[in-house]
Each structure stands twice: as structure tokens, then as C-alpha cells.
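Reference record
================
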Amino acid sequence: TFVVKRKIIYADLIEIARFFDVSPEALLYRLLNIKRITKESLEKLLKDRLFREIDRSTMSQRWWQPPQFPEGFVRLAFVAYQKGKLSKSKLAKLLDTSLIDLNSTLREYGLNDQEGYDAEVRAA
């Protein structure tokens, strides 16, 4: 449990904020609004240098890295490759990767060059 004898350590407060994907400040204001901390405690924490340092030191662990290209672009390029409109090297160039790394890049977008995308269904 996070709270012992009505006290919580800074690292646990920050961990809770990260769990809910909010800033520690937002969490503190929420705790103030539901009357779990006092305004004095809030102001003290917001000014506390150690609290800020702990927050900053753990921040990069939660940063999300967006994909390099939009998923739709990658899918369209992949379909063009599958239909023979693009060569494998042109696909790699469009996705800014090498031929060697192309399969792993495609897997990042949920695509697999090894699967049978060319399977056909007979229309009635």
C-alpha cells in the first residue's frame, strides 16, 4: 500500500500520477479537491525541489514515441508493394529503412511480408 500512517512518499505520489497518465500537479490538485490533502500541503509540495527532481528523473521513462509514419501511409505503401507496384527496395526507401530492417519495420505496424496477403477468394 502507498499510504502508511497517513503519509505517502514522493516517489509513490509520482508513480500514482504516472499510472493514471497525469502530471503529479494534476494528481495533487485532484487530491486537494477530494479533501485528501490540505492547500498548505499542496503548496509545499509544488515548491519542493526534491519532489520536482524525483518527478523529472522518472519522466523520460513514460515518454511515448509516436511512429515515424502514419499507419495509413505504411499500409498503402505495403499494399502497393504486395501488388507489384513498388519494389522491395523502393518500399524500404519510402519507410526510411534498409532492406535488412524492412521486415522489423513492417512488424512495428502490424504487417508481415512473409504472410499470404495474396490469397484470393472466388467471387460468385
The radius of gyration is 25 Å. The domain at 65-124 is CATH 1.10.10 (Arc Repressor Mutant, subunit A). The helical segments are 10-19, 24-33, 39-47, 49-59, 71-82, 88-94, 102-108.
